[in-house]
Design goal:
elongated; single chain; mainly beta
Amino acid sequence: RETGRMILEFDTIPPYGILFITSNKKMVYQVVFDGISKNTHDIDFVQPGQYGFYYLLDEDRDGKWSTGSIFEDKEAEKIIWIPDVTTIRANWDVKSKLDLHSVKRKE
């Protein structure tokens, strides 16, 4: 089956966290960002279809969403829901610019 290429660009270098890429409400890819060096990422061999995104600000760097605690006065890790949807086509390179600053953060 023929595949495409997804080229992701952020408006800024994202803080340490994980970008989750979803298709049909299921997580299909995850990309870890170290918060230092890169604001782009390429994913090869992506099946054609529509993909959505959300970004986890992984403050404790454990690779998963951490809940808060009312006993320790600690908030849950923030999730940024990105409203953009990207459509991948076979044999195409599709560039998507993801804006982390102007989207609503789930608190």
